[in-house]
Amino acid sequence: MGKNCKLVLSILRICIVIKMFLSSSFCDVVSLFSDFAIEEVKGKKVTFIPTASIVEEYVGHVENDKRAFESLGIIVDVLELSTASNNVIKEKITTNDYIFVSGGNSFYLLQILKETGADQLIKEQVSNGKLYIGTSAGSVVMCPDIQYIEAMDDKSFAPKLTEYKAMGMIDQYPLVHYGCEPFTAVAEQVYQEYKDKLPLVLLTNHQVITVRGGELGVLTV
Question: Which residue spans traverse the membrane (predicted)?
């Protein structure tokens, strides 16, 4: 490869902007999504990963989020990491327009992400500019380490996890569902325990952390 080609590749890498839309409840902040995406979202296809929810009793939020995407004209392509083949995982994560990771148990989600290698695939795609959308657990796993959320999520669902280092694509720690039932008490417990130890971002169900390049902001519906 010539010097000019290497220079072009280097410039392209510099120009790539990491984009993330991290919520507690995607269906409650969907009205903010199109403006954040800065493109026509109708007809786009999202890789919809519900994995975190399969160990939970309540999964209504998964259907609510599916309908939220569909209301924007976005095509939902479901990918259940725990049962999909490696080829299917790679194909859907790398070829679809967006990646969405739903809520549920953060520890179980992280375990499956690591077991399947989906964590590295997602990091590569997001680093190359693909828009990542997370809700609840799907937002939590983008922080450096998820141990802070153990009061909210039962880590016994992830017995194979030997440590809790997560995706590390943001430096902050989303404290999801803050001030919102049925998580009000436990979210406050996490806040009191870690407010002086970690850079927490308090996130109600009607707020979203937006990441564009190196800039992080919080929007409210």
Answer: none
pLDDT tens digits for range 108-162 = 999 999 999 999 999 999 999 999 999 999 999 999 999 999 999 999 999 999 9
Give one DSSP letter per residue of 9-66, joined into a string.
Answer: HHHHHHH---EEEEES-HHHHGGGHHHHHTS--TT-EEEEE-GGGTT-S--HHHHHHH
**Angle formed by the axes of helices 106-116 and 118-127, nearest 10°:** 90
Residues sharing a CB contact under 8 Å with residue 124, sequence separation 6 or more, in sequence order: none
DSSP classification of residue 165: B
Is residue 136 flagged as an active site residue?
yes
Choice among 24, 25, 102, 136 that is catalytic: 136
98, 69 Cβ separation under 8 angstroms: no
3-state DSSP assignment of residue 174: strand
**SS3 call for 211:** strand
Q: Give the DSSP letter of residue 74.
A: P
Catalytic residue (one of 24, 53, 61, 177): 177
Residue 135 · residue 103 · CB < 8 Å: yes
